[in-house]
Amino acid sequence: MSLIEAEGLSRTFALPKRTLFESRRTSTALHPTDLTIDEGESVGIIGESGSGKSTLVRLLLGLDRPTTGRVAVDGREVDATASARSLHWLRRQTGLVFQDPYASLDPRMTAGRIIAEPLWALDIPGDHRARVREVLAQVGLEAGMADRHPHEFSGGQRQRIALARAIAHRPRVLVGDEPLSALDVTVRAQVLELITELQREEGLTVIMVSHDIGVVQNLADTVMVMKDGRIVERGPTDAVLQRPTEDYTKRLLAAIPVIPRP
User: Fold this and answer.
1) Which of 85, 109, 117, 165 has the fewest CB atoms within 10 Å of its CB?
2) What does each C-alpha distance from 211 to 99, 113, 241 come to in angstroms?
């Protein structure tokens, strides 16, 4: 069953004038795009910087207003112009993990307050302290760590806290915008395994934006390849990465660095 649907979705931005009499110029970040994401599906979005990956995700989450087109989540249309409170239904459905765990966490707040933030912000009923302890255990951290501040954690632990915050309100969709790129290889593998476990346990729909094709290969059922604001190839991950049909996808895969054997 389709959980997220987009029709004719596009985004253009006005560029500043270079001279007084110059006509207004625009830049297209996303050309008209149609897509569907099924409930429980894990989707990887890959492409070069500036290919439109983050723009697409922001539009799907109602964090930006499309120039044309529409987005519906669970059959309900997303109105990005609506007030923050009127979009609570969408925020309850989605959780987001950003690239830099330190920049995305308020240094003045304890880990417990950070994780509980979506619970009170979205008016989620129940025992918030108990839920914080529960998600801390889910991401492999001790309950006592709730009283610490972000600077007291390692990079990998901070990303686990960001992940705990993203799932605290029990969303149906988990979105990661380059959530592993700031981590070293060992920690990246641990967090990737954690996201896989959470998807299996919680039945999450996962959308993962990544430059790292290895991350997408290990996590995603479906991969979308983006170039210049367009989805140029989409299909089952193994099929696309092993037998790409588009020249751009082939070049992207060929650009993966390989360390020669001695």
Assistant:
1) 85
2) 11, 31, 14
Q: What gap in Å lies between CA 173 and CA 39, rounded to an integer?
A: 8
The pLDDT assigned to 262 comes to: 54
Q: Exposed, middle or buried: residue 23 (CB in 10 Å: 0-12, 13-18, 19+)?
A: exposed
Whether the Cβ atoms of residue 67 and residue 12 lie closer than 8 Å to each other: yes
Instruction: For residue 149, give both structure tokens.
Output: 């501040």
Q: What's the mean pLDDT when you consider all of the chain?
A: 89
The pLDDT score that the predictor gives to residue 260 is 55
CA–CA separation, 100 and 117 (whole Å): 18
pLDDT digits (tens, 9 = 90+) for 93-113: 999 998 777 788 899 999 999
pTM: predicted TM-score of the whole model, two decimal places:
0.89
Instruction: Give the per-residue pLDDT at 215.
Output: 82
Q: Confirm if 163 and 139 have CB atoms less than 8 A apart.
A: yes
> Strand, helix or coil at 35?
strand
pLDDT confidence bin for 175, thresholds 50/70/90 = very high
What does the DSSP assignment read for 151-202? GGS-HHHHHHHHHHHHHTT--SEEEEESTTTTS-HHHHHHHHHHHHHHHHHH
In whole angstroms, give the CA distance from residue 154 to residue 150: 8
Is the pLDDT at 89 greater than 60? The verdict is yes
pLDDT at 30: 96
| Amino acid occupying residue 161 | I
Question: Tokens for 226?
Answer: 């983006």
| 56: helix, strand or coil | helix
2 and 38 Cβ atoms separated by less than 8 Å = yes
Sheet holding 222-227, edge to edge: 94-97, 173-177, 205-209, 42-46, 222-227, 230-236
CA-CA distances (angstroms) from residue 94 to 81, 107, 110? 18, 24, 23
